[in-house]
Write a structure and sequence with these properties.
Helix content: over 70%
Number of helices: 8
Number of domains: 1
Distance between the termini: 46 Å
Radius of gyration: 18 Å
Structural class: mainly alpha
Number of strands: 0
Low-confidence stretches: none
């Protein structure tokens, strides 16, 4: 059965479904942030279970394929080593899954935090979009907006 799954879910297919699969979650997060479906599916652990399952599957797939996971630690040695690491398809798809999960986690956190402060979804629209594309920049812009909206500076929140 694992062989049939592996035959269907090629790396290109997984990449396609990862990119396509996060879009509905982001759209619900942006358009319907206060709906029940957003609370149940989007800002819960559900999307992270899916991304974790993909990540575990990829880890298993590359492990049985003979990928050398110790080679991943060369990313800390220098920029040249990092560039070489991104040439490996295994590292690239696992990195992309990691990237999607982290950005989505940050987007969900921004939305939940803005709801605690009773901020309008229109105020956080721009930081959410930026978080989808450029995670850290979206978080910083949200933090600046939050600072003015909450009328306090708190570096520990």
């Amino acid at each position: 059965m694992i062989e049939q799954i592996a035959a269907f879910f090629t790396i290109e297919m997984i990449y396609f479904w990862l990119n396509l699969g996060v879009i509905p979650f982001w759209l619900i997060l942006i358009i319907f942030p206060q709906s029940k479906i957003c609370g149940l599916l989007v800002t819960s652990v559900f999307p992270f279970f899916i991304l974790t399952a993909v990540y575990v599957y990829l880890g298993y797939y590359f492990y049985i394929s003979g990928y050398d996971f110790d080679y991943n630690f060369t990313l800390y040695l220098g920029l040249y080593d990092l560039r070489n690491l991104f040439e490996a398809e295994a590292f690239l798809i696992m990195f992309w899954t990691h990237f999607l999960a982290i950005n989505f986690f940050c987007g969900a956190w921004i939305m939940k935090d803005s709801q605690k402060l009773f901020m309008s979804k229109y105020i956080v629209f721009f930081p959410i979009i930026l978080t989808y594309f450029i995670g850290p920049l979206g978080i910083v812009i949200y933090w600046i907006i939050r600072m003015f909206y909450a009328k306090r500076i708190n570096l520990l929140d």
